[in-house]
Amino acid sequence: MACIDAYNRSISYLRISVTDRCNLRCIYCMPEEGIPLKPHSELLTFEEITRIVKVAASLGITKIRLTGGEPLTRKGIVDLVRMIASVPGIEDLAMTTNGVLLPAFAHKLKEAGLKRVNVSLDTLKPERFRRITRVGNLEDVLRGIEEARKAGLTPIKINIVVLEGFNRDEIIDFARLTISEEWHVRFIEVMPVGAEAEGNLGQYVSMKEVREEIEKELGPLIPADLKGSGPARYFRLEGAKGTIGFITPISEHFCYQCNRLRLTPDGRLRPCLLSDFEIDIKSAIRSGATDEEIAEIIKEAVRLKPERHHLEASSFPSGRAMAEIGG
């Protein structure tokens, strides 16, 4: 059974933000002063999350991605992975992480049923990493990537948000790494979300410019196929072990093929990342809703999924920071 929205898109993917907490403070994701954190009692419990996943799976959801904040800061996260991995109908369970805690968690996550990880990494320079994340150490992330590789959480995808004035000069360094390493590097246009939205747009770099820069320096990019690529378009440099992907939410939006819903840590279903509209599912669960009633809430979120975002009209979601949504 598939859930089809008003624009004939089959919704098969649920991104679950398990916490609004993060051990980094990335400049494009979180205000410098941080965000007001939800008390633990307001967050969905693991049992509530798993129940939503079970109902969603009965409606055609087959892919789950755990996000945050930083999902590995949620106490007991390995248990949640195990719970979701055991749900019939879930074929793919992945996680987006900043990688800092992966050295301690990679093998446990694999054993619990996690299939792969995406690691956010916006620079290869230690001092710049500290500047972008405000608090982090690059070496922790690099160790985490290596441990994920050893654990078999592959293919490992590296997410780079390209920011003018911060890391644009490292595009070639990242692209060159795909020649010798089996890294699947994805360059991403910054998305204007939350209070930082307009400031983020001031640092925007289009993927057309990024691709032109890579081809000028390193040669032609050959189209490549990578399973589970989602909105990214993948290419490979001649003879390279890894791939280079481009994600273009602003310059060339991919809303027409969007197949996802998002679940916030405090139990709101969000049909579109780039819209503030949300539907409360937690209150229904805590009021004793049946599985059938939960299914109707999920179906409503699918029905109300917008055709596309309207960033070109300066319509930015401002209700939550990215860390509260789980981009």
Descriptive tags:
327 residues; two-stranded antiparallel sheet; single chain; twelve-stranded mixed beta sheet; alpha/beta; globular; 32% helix; TIM Barrel
Low-confidence stretches: none
How many strands, which pairing sense, and closed or not: the largest β-sheet?
12 strands, mixed
Q: How much β-strand is present in the residues?
A: 15-25%
- Helical region count? 11
Please write the string of helix (H) and strand (E) elements. EEEHEHEHEHHEHEHHEEEEEEHHH
**Superfamily at the CATH H level?**
Aldolase class I
- Overall outline: globular
Structural class assignment: alpha/beta
Radius of gyration: 19 Å
Helix content: 25-40%
**What's the N-to-C terminus distance?**
26 Å
Mean pLDDT across every amino acid position:
90
Strand order of the largest sheet: 9-10-11-8-7-6-5-4-3-12-13-14
CATH topology: TIM Barrel
If classified by CATH, what would the architecture be?
A: Alpha-Beta Barrel
Secondary-structure map with pairings?
Layout: E1 3-4, E2 10-11, E3 13-17, H1 46-58, E4 63-67, H2 77-85, E5 92-97, H3 102-112, E6 116-120, H4 126-133, H5 138-151, E7 157-162, H6 171-180, E8 184-189, H7 197-201, H8 207-218, E9 221-223, E10 233-237, E11 243-247, E12 260-263, E13 268-270, E14 279-280, H9 282-286, H10 291-303, H11 322-325
Parallel strand pairs: 3-4, 3-12, 4-5, 5-6, 6-7, 7-8, 8-11
Antiparallel strand pairs: 1-2, 9-10, 10-11, 12-13, 13-14
